[in-house]
Amino acid sequence: MTVPPPSFGSAGEHQLQQHLGTADRAARFYDQQVRRHLTPEMQDFIGRQTMVFLATADSHGECDASFRAGPPGFVHVIDAHTLAYPEFRGNGVLASAGNMVENPHLGMLFVDFTHHHVGLHVNGAAYLYHDADLRRIHPGLPTDVAPGRGPEMWVHLTVEEAYIHCSKYIPHLEPAPRPTGRDAGRPKDSDYFTARPHEAVEAYTGP
After folding, report:
1. What is the 3-state secondary structure (H, E, C) of 152-178?
2. Contact 109, 52 (CB under 8 A)
3. Burial of 34 (C-beta count, 10 Å sphere; 0-12/13-18/19+)
4. How far, in Å, are 89, 128, 149 from residue 146 at the CA level?
5. Measured CA distances, 149 to 96, 145, 156, 157 (Å)
6. What is the pLDDT of residues 62-81, one digit of tens each?
7. Across-strand partners of 106?
């Protein structure tokens, strides 16, 4: 009798599961928690989130992790199989979007640090659209994601799998007002990690 391959997970996952004896536990997780679409509860959860962590890689497998934030719903749920979020003008590097051009696989991690202390993984295939082009396909896209700022492009994600991130180790964070001005001694963002080597040595006070 031929055993069908597992529905979810990579070959590396299944190899380690066999090696460490977790295959049965993992199979229960795949069966009970992993979906090939966004359930109504997942869609509602995404619509309340104000940030998401991104995982991309180029065609050679070189990885990059990034972060996006906005008002609730800035990641727009088009339907149970589709998400879209806007890319605004930044530093011009376009690291995440550039990776998607080479390799469409995109991992998204939404985490609720303040209320339910749960996370949601959404993995799928990403495609970049100019704002006008995606609006022709999906005219219901929000128009006021960031007042005064228009998206340079949209990331359109076709969902391949979605699953919960356990709340056990998610810390509780209290939202705080964003500072309205810079402290006099605080460096600019672009200078924050650019201390000269000798300055770093002089500042070091360890043994």
Report:
1. CEEEEEEEEEEEEECCCCCCCCCCCCC
2. yes
3. middle
4. 12, 19, 5
5. 20, 8, 19, 22
6. 999 999 999 998 999 999 99
7. 124
- What pTM did the predictor assign? 0.84
Separation between Cα atoms, residue 73 and residue 46, nearest integer Å: 7
- In angstroms, the CA 204 to CA 110 distance is 36
**If 0-12 CB within 10 Å is exposed, 13-18 middle and 19+ buried, where does residue 35 land?**
middle
How far is it, in rounded angstroms, from Cα 148 to Cα 72? Answer: 17
Query: Residue 115 corresponds to which tokens in the numbers above?
Result: 């209320």
Out of 63-67, 110-114, 167-171, least confident range: 167-171
DSSP 146: B
80 DSSP 8-state letter = T
Rounded to whole angstroms, the Cα distance separating 196 from 199 reads 5
The beta strand positions in the chain, using DSSP E, are 51-57, 63-69, 76-79, 82-87, 105-111, 119-129, 153-165
Helix (H) or strand (E) holding 132: helix 131-137
